[in-house]
């Protein structure tokens, strides 16, 4: 989709997707991200299996119109409390964004978490970034078919277990598992398990950064919550420019480059290795030609 500006230039509203091959990163923040993956998934997959006073600890029983949250039972007329809890969570999310920037997007968002899980599976089966690029470019062989099939099978199993777990919050999870084993599950249960499995498989396995760029409503307005004191990851243009591969050094060890006027100036610290782009799961280049200033 594209529109024409008054000057006659064509502005594309949606760019065709180019395959992104994120390079595996190591370090403090990568470890913190994986800690968030483990914590969120242990909570998500584990809570439906907890029991409390002889029943499921967390169960949103829509048929009986009762929400069981450990020892607390909420009826439809108590929904105001759940709404208040959700409002508090939303305000807390806004506060965290205003103070620390995109920490939700980078560490705790379900899209980020499941993309990280699916990428881990992809790396274990197809190899590192360079191996995945070579595999996609080579013609179809038995090896390529087997690796692709194994990857998608693993993705599908994770997605199905995710859909099953999600439905397990609204129907007793043990009864749900027994019904699946005996193939006596109702049509609506099959539908919702399949629906959420398909959404997980599609979003984390195929769409990935497209969800963040074009579908996520939070990404559309979170920049309005930034101010001059918000911690954000950005490019220091004054330090990095002029960017470029390191050339001949001066006698002081400084990298030099000829400017437009023919003079000599010190090169910036950015060596244009594109590593910052390669490790980004959304393929974003944080080195724009201009750097916005938040006032």
Structure notes:
51% of the residues lie in helices and 9% in strands. The protein has 295 residues and is mostly helical. Residues 248-253 and 290-295 have low confidence and may be disordered. The protein has a three-stranded antiparallel sheet with strand order 5-6-7, with no helix packed on it. Helix 1 (28-46) crosses helix 4, helix 4 (110-126) packs across helix 8 and helix 6 (142-167) packs across helix 8. The chain is globular. It contains twelve helices and nine strands. A hairpin with a 5-residue loop joins strand 1 (2-4) and strand 2. It has two domains: 28-225, no CATH class; 236-295, no CATH class. 13% of the residues are buried.
Structural class: mainly alpha
Please give the alpha-carbon distance between the first and last residues.
33 Å
Work out the helicity level. 40-55%
Q: Average pLDDT value? A: 84
Question: What about the largest sheet?
Answer: 3 strands, antiparallel
SSE topology string: EEHEEEEEHHHHHHHHHHEEH
Strand content: 5-15%
Q: Supply the number of helical segments.
A: 12
Looking across the biggest beta sheet, what order are the strands in? 5-6-7
Number of domains: 2
Unreliable runs? 248-253, 290-295
Rg computed from alpha carbons, rounded to a whole number of angstroms: 25 Å
Q: How many E-type strands? A: 9
Overall, the morphology is globular
How would you briefly describe this protein structure?
The chain has 2 domains: 28-225, no CATH class; 236-295, no CATH class. It is 51% helix and 9% strand.
